[in-house]
Amino acid sequence: xxxxxxxxxxxxxxxxxxxxxxxxxxxxxxxxxxxxxxxxxxxxxxxxxxxxxxxxxxxxxxxxxxxxxxxxxxxxxxxxxxxxxxxxxxxxxxxxxxxxxxxxxxxxxxxxxxxxxxxxxxxxxxxxxxxxxxxxxxxxxxxxxxxxxxxxxxxxxxxxxxxxxxxxxxxxxxxxxxxxxxx
Length: 183
Description:
The chain is built from eight helices and two strands; from the N terminus they run H-H-H-H-H-H-H-E-E-H. The chain has helices at residues 3-17, 32-44, 48-61, 66-78, 82-93, 101-117, 121-134, 163-181; strands spanning 145-146, 151-152. The longest helix is centred in the last third of the chain and has 19 residues, at 163-181.
């Protein structure tokens, strides 16, 4: 994807997300976007348990937030809760992917990571392919298998910079920047 296409995707995403952030009169504790943003910040800081709690609060206030479900999937992968991550990713990918392609791409990527960690390499490859088809910056990882155990493993180190969390974080930062600049 060239830089112009990337910028167009970001701008289109901002136009979709911005109305959700217009609930300025809502107290922070009752605003799912407040909790979602907290979850993203905590996940980027590597505080995955706290991020999960904040993200679950966002989903308790609005369980139809594709971005929060995609974030949930990425956080759960980092916590090693792979089956739960697949369920969260499926909540995102079960709806129309044309609305927020980057959120869907992040969900597919997280699902791929979870499936891969569970040794379901073929399903993981399919999920990574879906992620890549929606966002070409999400290049599928090499599928390294442990020949003695017959299972696949994600990278040996857990980075707080999971691709799904990064994509969602960038979208949120741009939306917040745009919202502040228009005031």
